[in-house]
From TrEMBL:
SUPFAM superfamilies: ISP domain (SSF50022). InterPro entries: Rieske_2Fe-2S, Rieske_2Fe-2S_sf. Keywords: 2Fe-2S, Iron, Iron-sulfur, Metal-binding. It comes from Afipia carboxidovorans (strain ATCC 49405 / DSM 1227 / KCTC 32145 / OM5). The keyword Acyltransferase does not apply. Residues 8-104 form the Rieske domain. Coiled coil: none annotated. One of its GO terms (molecular function) is 2 iron, 2 sulfur cluster binding. Its cofactor is [2Fe-2S] cluster. This is Rieske domain protein. It holds the Pfam family Rieske. Belongs to the bacterial ring-hydroxylating dioxygenase ferredoxin component family.
Amino acid sequence: MTVSADVWQPVGSLADLEVGDRKEVSLSNGKLILILRSESGYYACCADCPHQDTPLAEGSLDGDILTCPLHFWQWNVRTGEKVGIAELPLEMFELREDNGEWLVRA
Ligand code: FES
């Protein structure tokens, strides 16, 4: 039986992210995540759309609403909850700051 546990992994400084910016980060465990800065804060989610794996970095972020560029599914980045026509939630990861360096639990 294989047991995997999410661990806190460094993603560096996010000081260069402006509101509305997105940044893909490849973690040492092979996961690709997307870090976003919305009007309400910093969030981390899966990098690819849960519908057909479109890179969400190419989508748009308006307020706290992230929109996939392909079929326009939307989610609230505060919670990962689907909005509008989306049929699946967005996988979110915990994110925290430690002395200017950010860590994601994934
Ligand atoms: S691939 Fe993102 S909504 Fe279809």
